[in-house]
Amino acid sequence: MFSGLRIFKEGLTGNTGWSPHWRDPAPKAEYDAVIIGGGGHGLSTAYYLAKNHRMTNIAVLEKGYIGSGNIGRNTTIIRANYYLPGNSEFYSHSLKLWEGLEQELNYNAMVSQRGVINLFHSDGQRDAFVRRGNAMRAQGDDAELLDPEGVRRYLPYLDFDNTRFPIYGGLLHARGGTARHDAVAWGYARGADRLGVDLIQNCEVTGIDIESGVVRGVQTARGPIKAKKVSIVTAGRSGQVAALAGLRLPIESHVLQAFVTEGLKPCIDHVVSFGMGHFYISQSDKGGLVFGGDLDFYASYAQRGNLPMAEHVMEAGMTLMPMIGKAKVLRSWGGIMDMTPDGSPIIDKTDTYGLFLDCGWCYGGFKAVPASGYALAHLMATGVPHETARGFRLDRFRDGHGLMDEEGTGAQHNLH
Fold first, then answer.
1. What is the pLDDT, as a whole number, of residue 303?
2. Is residue 160 located within the same domain as residue 264?
């Protein structure tokens, strides 16, 4: 267990007394539940299955190492500033789980509620954010509308004199912020392991066994594993893994780039979003400026992006806050985003009995980690959708009923 005294002692003795945070077990021949994907969503699902539903004969199968996918390839933002019913209550639940996560897991996930400020640059955008803020407050979350002087008090370093994109104000979501992505994965992995879950790394799933419409288990690089229930929780690879079960999902996989600069002295206290360039930025605890922008707008499974989009993101950053122009960019990376036609996720059963899906997170995957696992665990254990995730049905893309187009951009994957 972690405690201040233990951390102090280890710091004085070279950190030589720590033991591994989780076991490295060999896969068993059979489990009650198998979760394909050892990222944030898969690990949180395993944790809540064990904690909330007393299921302990569970395996998480990860083709690489724990946390090697999108959970380590994002810009770490957490927030509950969604507008539409169906999304709003889900992300509200997720933020409440974030607020108690470190105490829940006894692990420092570096949750920092530094506040999220979404800027707007026209009368139409202001009206849209007024509606969004009212919806957030009606849901029970916080929202504060800022005029230009209100924004200046929080963000004096912005280019307020920009004649092309004048800053009309912003929407402050004070409870939003950031968390440390890899620490979230490690915390959930450690918590699940302590409850008896087997975390099996370097175990790629190569097939899904189905007999008479019922899932029976999986084929893996480390041999066959029988299972009564199987969940596909593989983010941008969801389409490929689902194809092993004969499913064609309504998703496209796109690359989303992110960037980080050299470490700087504290200069950006909030998460800031530019309303005219889909640019967002925050400063990490190491001092690096972490920022990103739009998707690369072409389907790909490559975890890298192209230079035109990198240039686009840099241009948006310089337009909003020219002060960052002298900062050196140290590295960039790409995450594979599983994009749905309405920009909202899927947490549902499939037509194959015992086979479940958790995918289609678009830009919202990291902030949803706690609530996603919570809801999927509830569905797997009880067969009934959790109340916060009732709208995330797979069949809404078949009949069009219940679509949640959060951004109002229509049924075009790469615009979400």
1. 86
2. yes
